[in-house]
Design brief:
seven-stranded parallel β-sheet, 2 domains, 15 strands, Rossmann fold, globular, 11 helices, about 350 residues
């Protein structure tokens, strides 16, 4: 039953057995009598009633006809699925395909193996925690072995079915031969490589840069990505399966004052990622990068070499992202269906429109 009200007139439709239409038209004109017209076998009397009740003016007849058409259309539409009342998705990464109606599932990460560099703190730590939560076995790589052991104990207690394998390593002090043997040391197959290790040292201008600091940043940010990709990409290609995720930065897309070395290294990571995607295009190995803007971690304290006031001033007056925000972006890229390759995810703090263009509320 569908009812349509308009000023003083009311149209009611009733369907019988889905197809038979019995039309009952009720017209209320202020406090006067209502004329009733019902479709039945006495068509002559019906037409006379219609004329007396509805056709007093040509304009009113046209108006009634329009009401009938509109109400009939609404009745048909009411039989269709009301998409506005669908229940919320249990898994926000799965939707119904419109073309087939089949369930569109994300790629499960459970039981897979990953290696994450720079895993002892900041974004790397958050990524490791999210991977473990998804049931991924993780080789955690960093220079601070005590931090790695603490993380292993914590995550294996929380996720008993997950294996966490600590690997202490300094890329700048590791030979090529040693790097190529790393896959053999990991007790599980690595299908996911997250090149996260990186740092910035200082904010000097190009004419006052520390060459020693510059070499450290270049070796960590660029050579670390190159070395670990070389060590694991060949196995991924052979198995025709894998995903390489390079943690870059908005500094890989922009340049700013005081960031000459860091911006240069992240631009290099961006170019390396693009080239790797070209090189591996004839395989099922996917290559992604994640390029966050302002994220408050211990990264900034390292850049300012422990200057607490400088770190506080950088984040003054706005709400920066946190490491977990970036980790979620990594999980998103990893969990897309195999037909999809996420190339780059660029994210900024809500108050940020560019690397150094930030609205500060104070």
């Amino acid at each position: 039953m569908v009812e349509t009200d308009l000023s003083e007139k009311k149209v009611v439709f009733s369907f019988v057995s889905g197809k038979t239409l019995n039309a009952l038209l009720l017209v209320k004109t202020h406090t006067k009598s209502c004329f009733v017209c019902e479709e039945n076998a006495e068509r002559t009397r019906e037409r006379e009633t219609w004329k007396r009740g509805f056709c007093r003016r040509e304009e009113e007849e046209e108006e009634i006809r329009s009401f009938l058409i509109l109400s009939f259309f609404l009745l048909i539409m009411s039989d269709k699925e009301d998409v506005s009342h669908r229940p919320a998705l249990t898994n926000p990464m799965a939707t119904n395909l419109r073309t087939t109606g089949e369930r569109h599932q994300f790629c499960s990460l459970q039981g897979r193996g990953a290696l994450v560099t720079g895993a002892s703190g900041g974004i790397g730590l958050a990524i490791v925690e999210r991977l473990a939560e998804c049931g991924v076995n993780v080789c955690i790589v960093a220079r601070r072995v005590e931090k790695l052991n603490e993380l292993k104990e914590k995550l294996e207690t929380e996720y008993p079915d997950v294996t966490i394998f600590p690997l202490q390593l300094d890329v700048s002090k590791t030979s090529e031969e040693e790097m190529l043997k790393i896959p053999e040391k990991v007790p599980f197959q690595v299908d996911i490589l997250v090149n996260n290790a990186g740092l910035a040292l200082g904010t000097e201008a190009v004419d006052t840069n520390s060459i020693s600091d510059a070499m450290t940043v270049v070796n960590t940010n660029i050579m670390g990505v190159v070395a670990f990709t070389r060590a694991f990409a060949s196995g991924m290609r052979e198995r025709d399966r894998g995903h390489i995720v390079n943690i870059s930065s908005i500094a890989g897309h922009e340049a700013y004052i005081g960031g000459s070395i860091y911006c240069a290294t992240k631009h290099a990571v961006d170019a390396f990622t693009r080239s790797a995607r070209h090189d591996l295009r004839n395989s099922k190995v996917r290559v992604s990068s994640v390029s966050p803007g302002a994220v408050r971690t211990d990264f900034t304290m390292t850049r300012f070499k422990g200057d607490v006031d400088a770190e506080a001033a950088l984040y003054r007056g706005f709400d920066p992202m946190i490491a977990e925000d970036v980790a979620d972006q990594v999980i998103y890229a990893l969990s897309r269906p195999m037909r999809t390759q996420v190339c780059d995810i660029i994210s900024l703090a809500n108050a940020q429109s560019a690397a150094r263009d930030i609205h500060r509320g104070d």
